[in-house]
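Tokens for chain A. Residues wanted.
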């Protein structure tokens, strides 16, 4: 019985292509969601997470040591409470996260110093880092929806772009 080498090569190539397509469209997204494989937006999100607190708008201390000549635009107590509550409630649902509500909060902030002010308020009020909560969800959602807690890396990357486009101290 003779083996047709050309047919065997075609079948091998066909199987490799099928396996590649299945991996790219089915397995890889699952691995990215589970954190086994990094997605392209993970790099931007990881870069922010690894910044020193004094350089990041996500740290409440980031703008406290501004030059004395700078006027720092901060939030009122009522605004901090309102924004923090909106973010917490949007990320604390049993069914899913309200990405649009979270994005709306960051679009409403005028400066990076306001983001830092909100981050500090969020940390003291909810005993949780704001950036970490955006990425990983609240303690409630980590328990009840461990695979879907937190915003997707694409949404977190969009929020990072929104924050980075804002002026540092004043409008």
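Reply:
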């Amino acid at each position: 019985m003779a083996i047709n080498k050309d047919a065997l090569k075609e079948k091998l190539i066909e199987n490799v292509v099928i396996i590649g397509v299945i991996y790219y469209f089915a397995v890889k997204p699952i691995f990215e969601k589970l954190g086994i494989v990094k997605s392209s937006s993970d790099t931007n999100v990881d870069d922010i997470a690894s910044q020193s607190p004094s350089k990041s708008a996500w740290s409440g201390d980031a703008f406290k040591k501004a030059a004395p000549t700078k006027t720092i635009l901060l939030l009122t107590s009522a605004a901090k409470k309102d924004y923090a509550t909106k973010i917490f409630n949007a990320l604390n649902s049993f069914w899913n996260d309200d990405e649009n509500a979270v994005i709306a909060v960051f679009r409403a902030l005028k400066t990076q110093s306001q983001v830092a002010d909100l981050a500090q308020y969020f940390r003291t009020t909810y005993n949780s880092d704001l950036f970490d909560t955006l990425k990983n969800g609240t303690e409630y959602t980590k328990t009840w929806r461990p695979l879907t807690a937190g915003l997707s890396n694409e949404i977190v990357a969009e929020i990072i772009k929104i924050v980075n486009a804002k002026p540092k101290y004043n409008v």
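The first helix runs from residue 5 to 34. The chain is about 60% helix and 0% strand.
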